Every structure is written in C-alpha cells, then in structure tokens.
Amino acid sequence: MKFRLLLPLALAAAVCAAQAQDAVDTSRRTAIVNAIERVSPAVVTINVVDIRYERTDPAISGFYNLFDYGFRVPSQRTQEVESLGTGFIFDEQGHILTNYHVLQDADAITSVTLSDGRQLDVGFVGADERTDIAILKAKGENLPYAPLGKSEGLMIGEWAIAIGNPFGNMMRDPQPSVSVGVISANHRRVSREVAEGDRLYQDLIQTDAAINPGNSGGPLVSAAGEVVGVNTMIFSNTGGYQGLGFAIPADRVKRVAEEVIQFGRRRNPWMGFRGEPVSSLRDYSKQQLGVSVDDGVIVTEIMRDCPAFQSGLKLGDVIVGINGQPVTHPSDIDFVNWDLFIGDKVELVVDRRGDLQRFNYEIVELAQKG
After folding, report:
1. Number of H helices and number of E strands within the chain?
2. Among 57, 114, 280, 329, which residue's CB has the most CB atoms within a 10 Å radius?
3. Phi and psi angles of residue 340, each rounded to the nearest 5 degrees, phi first
C-alpha cells in the first residue's frame, strides 16, 4: 500500500517544482526586461575622431623638416583624439538620432556599430545645434529600429531606462549598457548659464537612471518599451554619475527630426526684436520710459517687417510673458523661440505703461523676412 502512494506523491512534487520554476522564470521577465529587449538592438555606438594639429619646436622635440634651402624649420604633427557617443535607429529608413555635441568637434566618424557587432555605413543628414539633435542615416535593409514614443504624460516616479555606451572605449564588445531609475521631474528648466545659453536645455526630463560619459544620444525608455527621450546631459561635480541626468523629451525630438530630415537643417525661427531686462534699468530710466513693472523685458529694437511689430508690438513695450511662460530675461524669450517651428503661434503678454495687452502672430523663417 505504501509503494502505491509513493509514485503519485513523487509526481505531485515534480509538478510543484516545475510550477515553482515557471513562476520564477515568469517573475524574472519583467516589463523592464521586455522594454530593454525591444529597444537595445537599435542602439548604436558612434566613434568619432578629432584631428588636432600642433607645431613643434625643433630645438625641443628633435623633429625637423629638411628642405632644399638647407635650414631647419618647426615641424607640425597631428594628434588624433578619439571619443564616442550613443545613438539609435528610430525609423525604417535607417535614420539615427544622437546628440549634436557628440559630433560637434569631430573631423570624422570612424565607425557606427550595432549591438550585434555589425558596422554600418552612414551619412550625415543634418543637425540643430540649439536643441542638441543630430541625424545620421545608415545604409542597409531590415535594420532594427526603436520608434519615438510620447513624452507628454510621463509620471513622476515611473520607471526610466537609460541605454547607451558609458565609457565604451573600455569595453571589448559592442553591446550597450543599461541602467534603471525613475522619472525624477518633468519640464525641468535648466539655468540659462548651462552651455552658456547657446542650447535649449529647457523643458527637459530629469531621471536618476545612471547616465555617464558616452551615454549622450542614447534612448531614455519607459517600462512600456517606448523611447520617451534622448539622454543628453548630467549635473556632476566629478564628471561621473551623481543621480542627476537629463533627456530631451521625445515630443520635441520628433519635430526637430522631421524638420532636419525634410530640409537638411532646422529652419531658423525669427522674432525680429530685441530687448533688455527691466531689472537692469535705473529708476530714473524706468520713470522716463513709463515702465510700471519690476520684471520683464523692455523692447529696445524692433524691425517693421517682423510679425511681432505687425501684430502691434512697439518700442518701449515690456514683455512679461510668452506662450504661457513668464519672462524676466531676454534668454527666456530666446528659449521659447528656439523651441518653435515655422507656422507655430506666439502670444506675447505685454505691459504698455500699466496697460496689459496681448499680441498674437505666427513664426516665420528668418530667410523669409523680406
């Protein structure tokens, strides 16, 4: 009787063990694992080289150029400085997104490599320095790609996955590295002094997913497997990861990419006026100009053929808001302008000697101003 019971019990134990193993395997395959498997095949390593020329003193270096006229002259030597960044293929045509600053100082792109080791033949499509976006195009068919998703609606605290090539020159294989964190903040406005005010580091996604040198241009991915941003910068006292990483939101990247692919460049939006911060005016000047507010930008120059003038803006007006954003410094206007595209609407909120007015117009291209 005992022997008859042993076999069913053994079978039941085996089934339970198999079910337990299946449960473990299922628990390992999380949404994050699926998201990484979906996006990482489209991630590329971009190697670039900057060729620097140095003149050498023959008396010190011992290097000479000997010419027919028989005397020694200083020699020139070259130094190749290699660096790398990350990018990712985002459409069926093989277009690759990366940061402009990855390519900015490069004399040549030496290689673009997929995570499976394939070397891609690429060409330069165009770039927009102000939004720090550049587009390359790879030749080939059936290339893996990770389409851009939506960045609007990201929730603070949801998972964020950074995929890239940090310190890639120290690795011996092309597979990207992955780090996981959360969305720390949305619509983050970085100080205008960052990048000396030459880049649109505004309205950024902040994450604590580890981003290090070499990660620039890589995708920031949600747990749903959507590319929600392009990793672009960190705040650090050491040059390495300290928990403050920033990505350009995918909604902006889409518009810039479409513009660059269509026109080979980002068409330059044109405001047609300049101003100074009210805070820089002396009290006597404010009184003479009829300025009744403490913050804003007073219009000091304006062109008659610009849309802002034609909508009603005049010299001496104080701009206190633009498209729902407060204005205290001319760079506030610049940042909004750089984020606009030809045909976008603009609303200026203006204080004119104590009277609050609104002016609306459409953005036109600088080259079309005449």
Report:
1. 8, 22
2. 114
3. -95, 160
- Note the CATH number of domain 159-251: 2.40.10.10
pLDDT value for 370: 47
Residue type, 124: F
Are residues 98 and 155 in contact, defined by beta-carbon separation less than 8 angstroms? no
The whole-angstrom distance between residue 7's C-alpha and the CA centroid of its chain comes to 63
Rounded (10°) CA dihedral 167, 172, 175, 181: -30
Range 269-368: architecture per CATH: Roll (2.30)
Give 298's strand partners: 276, 318
- Is residue 214 packed enough to be buried (19+ CB in 10 Å), middle (13-18) or exposed (0-12)? buried
CATH 2.40.10.10 residue ranges of the chain are 159-251
Ramachandran region, residue 310 (left: φ > 0; alpha: ψ -120 to 50; beta: rest):
alpha
Positions annotated as catalytic residues are 101, 132, 216
Over 70: is that where the pLDDT of 128 sits?
A: yes
Residues whose CB is less than 8 angstroms from the CB of residue 130 and which lie 6 or more positions away in sequence, other chains included:
198, 199, 200, 266, 338
CB 49 within 8 A of CB 107: yes
Helix/strand/coil for 279: helix
pLDDT at 274 over 50: yes
Which letter does DSSP use for residue 195 in this model?
G
Phi, psi of 261 (to 5 degrees): -65, -40
Phi–psi pair at 224, nearest 5 degrees:
-80, 0
For the chain, the average pLDDT equals 85
**Where, residue-wise, is CATH 2.30.42.10 in the chain?**
269-368
Say if residues 165 and 214 touch (Cβ distance below 8 Å): yes
Predicted confidence (pLDDT) at residue 98 exceeds the cutoff of 60: yes
Q: pTM, whole model, 2 decimals? A: 0.80
